[in-house]
Amino acid sequence: MVTKVPPRPAPARRALRLLLATGLAGTSLVVLPGTAQAEDEKSGGTTLTVAVSQSIDSLSPFLAQKLTSTSIHRLAYEYLTNYDPKDAHTIPGLATAWTSSADKLTWTYTIRKDSTWSDGQQATAEDAAWTFNKMMTDPNAATANGSFTANFAQVTAPDPQTLVIKLKKPQATMTALDVPIVPKHVWEKVTDFSKFNNDKQFPIVGNGPFVITDFKVDQYIKLKPNKKFWRGAPKFDELVFKYYKDGDAAVAALQKGEVSFVPNLTPAQAAALKTQKNIKVNDAPGRRFYALATNPGAKAQDGRTFGNGNKALLDPEVRKALFLAVDRTTLVDKVFQGHAVEGEGYIPPRFGSYFWKPEAAQKRAYDPAEAEKVLDAAGYKKNAAGKRLGKDGKPLDFRILCHATDPNDKAVGKYLQEWWGKLGIGLKVECLDSVSDPWVKGDYDLAFDGWSVNPDPDYVLSIHTCGTLPATPKDSGATDNFICDKEFDGLYAQQAVEYDAAKRADLVKRMQSRLYDTGYMNVMAYPNALEAYRTDQIKSITTMPEAAGNLWGQDGYWSWWSAVPTAQAEDSDGGSSTGVIIGIAAAVIVVLGLGAFLGLRRRSTADDRE
After folding, report:
1. Can you give the residue ranges of the Solute-binding protein family domain (predicted)?
2. Quick check: helix, strand or coil at residue 488?
């Protein structure tokens, strides 16, 4: 959305000159055909407005786990390393280089000299060392990303440009530490990391491409370009994430030009927008999975149980029967209308080396007749009214947590009521604006679940380990849904120390196999990234990966950092509206439209996650 801001000189930003200055050798930026942007000549600035439907759980990088929050932190803080937008291989971030000792127990990172905090102080190795040490010594600071530092023995900064991390045992994620590095001189003043949400004083000091300047709960969060960002400042003068509880309202705002970009479209919304002038729809393989999560009996590390989950779901035969009574093909065809791939393993097919699917003998395909047999054999008989009874003689009735803002949850819920109803099992679909409270309390039977997976799958695997359970029932943990399985834990420990890529991939697949067999997680689909933006506001923007990639929720800051305002692009292009792809290293120029793309968190309790 283009809005009025106080006039100020617009710096010259010729696209090619800026791209060559980035140092992203071998990457490509997609620049799409656009139309003239109706920018107010008196405004002197441009604003890119992104519609979001998810609340911010925290602006503290130590606590935030929802996708919107972690996406914003990728914009405001640098990580040691980043992911190339072309193919997601590791590239420099705050660290320019890294080496390991022969035994892989000591890692040394060279910290760049040209990264500056937005308050003018230089970012150094001491900031990184302090960030990691705080996570190692304060359990509250480890809430969001503690799995990355749990194996750290010592972290030091012998000089401003050298960071040394010593491990207890080898760790496979040392070039994929997805942890925002914070400024020590600001954060060392925080006394309680469990309560500090970093949302009282603005602008918030960071060293990423954007600086957070304002925030109103469930209204908006505003960011300005970090003019000191080492890779080059973003090209829009302001970036705003605007909250919309209703998806149709967000789409209407896009059509009116009140917002620039809308993610998470329904198939019907996407189809309608494809015919609209000045709007481009992106339909590409996503990095998320969509699943049913079963409450396995909420418990804490001290052994105490809590919550009111239905104990019938502790029986693996009940979970198996529910699994067999879910028709994934129908869900992909009818709910996602073909804009998804049928779910199988925990890692989406986009991550080819880690993608797993069950063998024919292992696969639990849709088979309601077999589900009936499983329940009968396990002693769950039907009464005269056709109602399935539990071992206590009471009818089997379950509850499922549903996100009120997600139409997919509601649609799938209706199918589950029908399919499980034929088994004699009742299902109450409880749709809430936020399912966080009942989820962390263990007050649910099942829930609609979903995560965005990073190129390195360690984090989304870690949330199902016993070590992520809350310390006591009153505490919060990094667990997704209280799974604690010793066999899964053993495999996780093995993959965490395995540096051989093929061997580690095999272990990750075995973990997915185990998760599949236990029936605690039923991955139903891998939804496409369905999103749209206004070409009269955004002239060009980077997808990730380059071929058929997403814009929202990327592993990095590439989309919003690279976005070029239409009016600005036309000024620099002499009025041309032709889109190009600029291959930095090869200097390849190719015309490309987004419509040609193939149509193929972190724990936030249950909301849309990273």
Report:
1. 91-462
2. helix
Task: Mark 131-166 as b/e (b = at least 16 C-beta within 10 Å).
Answer: bbbbbbebebbbbbbbbbbbbbeebebeeeeebebe
Whether the pLDDT of residue 592 is over 70: the answer is no
Mean pLDDT of the chain: 88
Which two tokens mark 471? 């310390």
pLDDT at 567 (0 to 100) = 81
Beta-ladder partners of 340: 527
The helix (run of H) or strand (run of E) holding residue 146 is helix 146-149
Q: Is 492 helix (H, G, I), strand (E, B) or coil?
A: helix
Which segments of 210-349 does DSSP mark as H helices, in order? 247-256, 267-273, 316-324, 328-330
Q: What's the half-sphere exposure (Cβ side, CA atoms, 13 Å) at 246?
A: 4
pLDDT in tens, 154-172: 999 999 999 999 999 999 9
Q: State the Cα–Cα distance between residues 346 and 339, nearest whole angstrom.
A: 18
| Cβ count within 10 A of residue 179 | 20
Strand stretches in 69-219, DSSP E = 81-83, 90-92, 95-100, 106-111, 152-159, 162-167, 210-216
Using alpha carbons, select from 100, 102, 83 the residue that is nearest to residue 92: 83
The residue that leads in pLDDT, 565 or 33, is 565
Instruction: Give the separation between CA 567 and CA 469, rounded to whole angstroms.
Output: 51
Rounded CA-CA distance 593/178 in Å is 32
Q: Convert the pLDDT of each residue in 423-439 to its tens digit.
A: 999 999 999 988 989 99
Instruction: Look at residue 569 in the predicted model and tell me its pLDDT.
Output: 57
The helix/strand/coil state of 134 is: helix
Q: What is the pLDDT of residues 112-142, one digit of tens each?
A: 999 999 999 999 999 999 999 999 999 999 9
Token couple for 376: 């009968």
Report the C-alpha gap between 562 and 566 in whole angstroms: 12
143: which residues sit within 8 A by CB, 6+ positions away? 62, 63, 65, 193, 194, 476, 478
Dist. CA 525–CA 449, nearest whole Å? 11
**Could you give all domains of the chain from N- to C-terminal order, each with its CATH number?**
47-285+530-565 (3.40.190.10), 288-527 (3.10.105.10)
3-state secondary structure (DSSP) of residue 380: coil
| Mean pLDDT value across residues 543-548 | 90
**Quick one: which H or E segment has residue 314?**
none
pLDDT at 479 (0 to 100): 93
pLDDT in tens, 345-398: 999 999 999 999 999 999 999 999 999 999 999 999 999 999 999 999 999 999
**What six digits make up the tokens of 15?**
């696209």
User: Do residues 397 and 428 lie in contact, with contact meaning Cβ atoms separated by under 8 Å?
Assistant: yes
Which region holds residue 144: left if phi is over 0, alpha if psi is between -120 and 50, else beta? Answer: alpha
Q: Is the link from the previous residue into 203 a cis peptide, with omega within 30 of 0?
A: yes
Which residue matches tokens 């000591």?
Answer: 106
| pLDDT: which is higher, 259 or 7 | 259
- Report the sign of the C-alpha dihedral through residues 131, 81, 605, 472, in that order: negative
Q: How far is CA 487 from CA 246, 398, 466, 512, in A?
A: 42, 28, 11, 11
